[in-house]
Specification:
134 residues; alpha+beta; 4-stranded mixed β-sheet; 36% helix; 14% strand; globular
């Protein structure tokens, strides 16, 4: 697995998740999560998904930060896989952290999934990073 898609240090991921969720839960709707925290968490959770659902039949895209191929099934050799899932970074993080359900995100249009094997609800949420400090 490329280094950019390895799970993050647990303490760094836990701190980033705490900051992102705090920003999203803030009463001030103008508060936006830090882009570095979003990047770290998107890549962290994509790495966990790749480990939990190894394969190459679905491409999961979270622009602008990363994309992976995962989910067991027929392997394609060129171009886009038969299944594609795309969403924004905040939606991805909320799904992975268990703060949003797959069904709700798809129903509300926050997740765009097309093709075979693109229902990721069986893989989500993913383990939430916990700080070892304390």
């Amino acid at each position: 697995m490329p280094s950019r898609l390895r799970p993050a240090d647990p303490d760094e991921a836990a701190a980033a998740l705490s900051r992102v969720l705090e920003a999203l839960d803030a009463l001030d709707a103008r508060t936006e999560p830090d882009r570095d925290d979003l990047r770290l968490l998107v890549r962290h959770f994509l790495a966990l998904l790749a480990g939990k659902a190894p394969g190459r039949s679905v491409e999961v895209r979270v622009p602008p930060y990363a994309a992976i191929q995962c989910v067991p099934g027929p392997r394609h050799t060129r171009g886009t896989p038969p299944g594609v899932v795309e969403m924004d970074p905040v939606t991805w993080i909320l799904l992975c952290a268990g703060r949003r359900t797959w069904q709700d995100a798809v129903h509300e249009g926050a997740v765009h999934a097309s093709g075979e094997r693109t229902d990721l609800s069986g893989y989500l949420p993913l383990p939430v990073p916990r700080s070892g400090k304390g």
